């Protein structure tokens, strides 16, 4: 079974055809989607992905939307995790790539959410863009129950550090570009038992959807992304799919199966 370990199915980009997107994913052989929330305003929409499609969901406050997060949203997150099933706290982390984001506020929210994850005994799904070392610093401080480093694009040394902390590394669309030589080298050389597959749909479209204009990424692209990983490693795609599925469930627990949307 293929598992998309990071898919924003609850995003507005899918509002017009979400049932069709899920049906296409199932037809392509994708058995489960992990849907991480990005803010308190999206928590209900994220929950609906579990209720309607059987998705595995996570709740968190994304660093890119730091200006929208309020202190009371941390309590809302804690309350949500107490009363509803979730496989992780996420998407959380730090983003030092987008200009103008309040770095100190990001750190404060990140640490608070790591504390919540510890209290809930849940793994975390972390956003690490231009912030790998800083994220590692706080993960070492709080020692949560592992998780996934989403869209990994760091160094081999940083990869090793995440793996030692019980994390898996997410690889997706960026790996499909021939010019992404460092990411492709890491995908080829890192221990396969440390890798999970992801789309980050509707974002990080694979090379064949690059455009112009760029196409919308979707979870039905995951088998082709898996095939790229298999080619880079010189392995058959069935082996890669099985190991990556096992890796995802090793860190997030059993995830169940995706289902087509039901009327009503």
TrEMBL record:
<dbReference type="GO" id="GO:0016787">
    <property type="term" value="F:hydrolase activity"/>
</dbReference>
<keyword id="KW-0812">Transmembrane</keyword>
<dbReference type="InterPro" id="IPR001130">
    <property type="entry name" value="TatD-like"/>
</dbReference>
<feature type="transmembrane region" description="Helical">
    <location>
        <begin position="21"/>
        <end position="43"/>
    </location>
</feature>
<dbReference type="Pfam" id="PF01026">
    <property type="entry name" value="TatD_DNase"/>
</dbReference>
<keyword id="KW-1133">Transmembrane helix</keyword>
<comment type="similarity">
    <text>Belongs to the metallo-dependent hydrolases superfamily. TatD-type hydrolase family.</text>
</comment>
<protein>
    <submittedName>
        <fullName>TatD family hydrolase</fullName>
    </submittedName>
</protein>
<keyword id="KW-0472">Membrane</keyword>
<keyword id="KW-0378">Hydrolase</keyword>
<dbReference type="InterPro" id="IPR032466">
    <property type="entry name" value="Metal_Hydrolase"/>
</dbReference>
<dbReference type="InterPro" id="IPR018228">
    <property type="entry name" value="DNase_TatD-rel_CS"/>
</dbReference>
